[in-house]
Amino acid sequence: MKLEVLEKDCYYHIYNRGINGSAIFENDANKTYFLKQLAKYSEDKISIFAYCLMNNHFHLVIRLNTEEKEVTQMFSNLFNSYAKAFNKQSNRTGSLFEKHFRRIKLKDENYLKQLIIYVHLNPKHHLNQDFQNFKYSSYQTYLSNKETKIEREEIINLFGNFDDFVFCHNQKNEFLNETYTFE
């Protein structure tokens, strides 16, 4: 599989999962630690627009603020530090993540908007959980006035305004409710 080249000032969907689909997060403390490590390693290298941490995979929507080599090294450091801590806690050895993190370059603003909604609705897709109250997604960050590293204002403006941001998420959620039956 040829990996997408990362380019400065471009937007990407970054995602990965546990090796063989296994869990990479066993509890809330794991997810909190991953987010802390992400903040630590990503400082000024990327802008984060959305995230969602599921039990066996994660999604990030980012923009590169620096060159590919720095960002690739940043992700390597993040994944290695998290995997070492997870393996120690879980008394396991070996790879935690699939070999290479996946990356898809976003072609336009519409794709960016749809991807942000998709990432935020991930708990609905996989767990039939209410995306609005899912603790390890950036959706609640958009609803909050708390200080954040998420590029909230830029994305709210992309959707037009806050009400349209919420409306688009709810509209897509209603579509999922009508289209899929979860058991």
UniProtKB/TrEMBL annotation:
This is Transposase IS200-like domain-containing protein. GO terms for molecular function: DNA binding; transposase activity. It holds the Pfam family Y1_Tnp. Residues 7-122 form the Transposase IS200-like domain. GO terms for biological process: DNA transposition. InterPro entries: Transposase_17, Transposase_17_sf. Gene3D superfamilies: Transposase IS200-like (3.30.70.1290).
